[in-house]
Specification:
Length: 575
């Protein structure tokens, strides 16, 4: 979610930064711990400039749902359509004016390698009265869980809908939590599968008063069976008077990490908040302990790293967070170290990595909604932030982070939109941008991207595609590990072509999509996004899967890249 307008100048002149802590929260160093934790908190390293914390609140008790989710009521469409709370733009006022600088890493043509057709391609959840759907999901050994605004769908991996229910019905079951999570869920849902412990996490936010307090409603499966295995339910106070917008989660080797953008009642950015959640508590259904830091308004849109694959990071490695800044063409890298056994918590950074110059799409400072549709309205590019997930991979000892965001392919006009993606290596040492590219091979608009990487290092990127002469479609492209750096050599493939456009008072689209990797073979990509079958207000979603390679090494071998000769005047291409 985001601010249409905010006044950074006012914040700069006043020089005021407000950090409001959830009820009962105080600096960790002064917080008494329950018997399950050390009685005293180890001294933390000096905080980075602009970082406050660590802070910890009271332990969050777990409620329990012990039944079968197929017994929960199915989501009911409200009498009137509702728009989820507005997505608050992060960098509107300080977005630089468009320039004539060319995108040096733009891929200007489609790849020529024949793309794989979907292995699975089935309907996801459809319009439930809320805009936008915030489509996302994840895949486990036997199920695919999709989350949209206020609702959850659990599918077999061949497309059978096994259960669908609302966040309200799940959290109000068995007496409820006694918080707004029971009856006032408002969206920004997340679904994640943690292959390290065979558990599912789904979450969204809730409040009963728009001035706060605000809650993050976290459901954690008791077993690997999300249908009949039961769930632990946690209502975490995430903000008192500051609104924690656009919350995102990531799986890490030692627990779960979360981020949100903070806004005050005037929709002025107050920076970001980042959390570490103790997974051991959640596995046993114990009261949940969460530690967080607040980051100044110089930074926003932090996205937590998300562990994928069977090879974990080295023991003790911190979790990573990233954000993007157009003002300096910079990727900011942060590290969150949470040691629950010694009660030591540090959040450090940023380490700044220069990326190829880019311009925010649609000239975000003035026109946030510029993506056209055939016979529809222009919709929001959501181009002021990284898009989920910040994927982490450890392949043959080579650590990398992969992420994407929407940019303007033509920097002197701010549109059409394309998708910039990065691979960042050695994140816990001396990190560097190993490769980057902007996928915008024609005049169509591409946005709302999500990517994932398989065990070979092959990458798939899914996204929405639209223009004034076509209805929005769901498509994907990809690359093998052996392809030229920065290039998507697989030709674009359609998961489904829309046959209608959004025509509704809201210009919201997304607000995100999700590409994930199957933990069973670590080769099959799963993607979900939204589209329209008929012009109007009734969105649809699609879930599909495909592989880029079926062999054990994909291309010429794990992380065996094609390096251009120095004598070449231009990098090699695959088209």
């Amino acid at each position: 979610m985001q601010v249409r307008k905010f006044c950074l100048i006012a914040l700069t002149v006043v020089g005021l930064l407000v950090f409001v802590l959830p009820d009962g929260a105080r600096p960790v160093a002064a917080q008494a711990q329950p018997p399950s934790h050390r009685a005293s908190i180890a001294a933390a390293a000096p905080p980075s400039p602009g970082v406050q914390g660590p802070f910890i609140g009271a332990p969050i008790p777990a409620s329990s749902f012990d039944g079968d989710v197929r017994q929960l009521p199915k989501p009911r469409q409200p009498a009137q359509s509702r728009e989820a709370p507005p997505v608050l733009h992060l960098h509107a006022a300080n977005a630089p004016a468009p320039s004539t600088t060319l995108d040096s890493v733009r891929q200007t043509q489609m790849g020529t390698r024949q793309s794989p057709t979907p292995l699975q391609n089935f309907a996801g959840l459809s319009f439930d009265g809320w805009y936008p759907p915030d489509t996302n999901g994840d895949v486990g050994p036997n199920n695919y869980i999709q989350a949209v605004n206020i609702a959850i769908g659990i599918y077999s991996k061949t497309g059978t809908l096994q259960a669908s229910f609302s966040f309200d019905s799940l959290f109000s079951s068995n007496g409820g939590t006694g918080t707004p999570c029971d009856n006032s869920n408002y969206g920004d849902p997340i679904a994640l599968y943690d292959a390290t412990v065979d558990r599912w996490l789904v979450a969204d936010f809730a409040w009963s008063n728009s001035n706060g307090p605000f809650y993050e409603c976290i459901a954690f499966s008791k077993t690997g069976n999300p249908v009949s295995g039961g769930w632990y339910l946690y209502a975490m106070l995430s903000g008192n008077s500051l609104f924690p917008d656009y919350p995102k989660f990531g799986v890490w080797s030692d627990g779960y990490y979360m981020s949100a953008n903070l806004f005050n009642s005037s929709n002025y950015s107050q920076g970001a908040r980042v959390w570490a959640l103790n997974r051991s508590d959640m596995l046993s259904g114990a009261s949940l302990h969460a530690v967080y830091f607040d980051v100044s308004s110089n930074y926003a849109g932090l996205l937590p790293g998300n562990l994928r694959g069977s090879t974990p990071p080295p023991s003790g490695e911190p979790a990573f967070f990233g954000s993007i800044d157009q003002n300096t063409n910079t990727f900011h890298l942060w590290k969150f170290q949470a040691n629950w056994s010694t009660s030591t918590f540090n959040f450090t950074g940023p380490q700044d990595l220069t990326v190829a110059s880019f311009t925010m799409p649609c000239n975000v400072a003035n026109i946030s909604a510029c993506v056209p549709e055939l016979n529809g309205q222009s919709v929001d590019s959501l181009g002021d932030r990284l898009m989920m997930q910040l994927q982490y991979r450890n392949i043959s000892g080579i650590e990398s982070l992969w992420v994407n965001h929407t940019i303007a392919a033509s920097s002197n006009t701010g549109y059409p939109t394309g998708i910039r993606w990065y691979e960042i290596r050695n994140p816990n040492g001396s990190p560097y941008v190993y490769q980057q590219g902007t996928f915008q091979p024609d005049s169509n608009y591409r946005w709302m991207g999500s990517l994932a990487v398989d065990k070979n290092g092959d990458m798939a990127l899914g996204y929405s595609v639209s223009s004034a002469s076509m209805y929005p479609a769901i498509r994907y492209a990809g690359r093998l590990v052996s392809d030229p750096l920065g290039q998507l050599c697989f030709a674009e493939t359609s998961l489904i072509e829309g046959t209608g456009a959004q025509l509704y008072g809201s210009n919201r689209w997304g607000d995100y999509s999700a590409m994930t990797i199957d933990p069973v073979d670590d080769l099959t990509f799963w993607y979900t996004n939204e589209y329209y079958a008929t012009t109007g207000g009734g969105w649809q979603t699609r879930i599909g899967s495909f592989q880029l390679a079926t062999g054990p090494t994909g291309g010429s071998g794990p992380y065996t890249y094609y390096f251009p000769l120095i004598a070449l005047s231009a990098p090699p291409t695959c088209y």
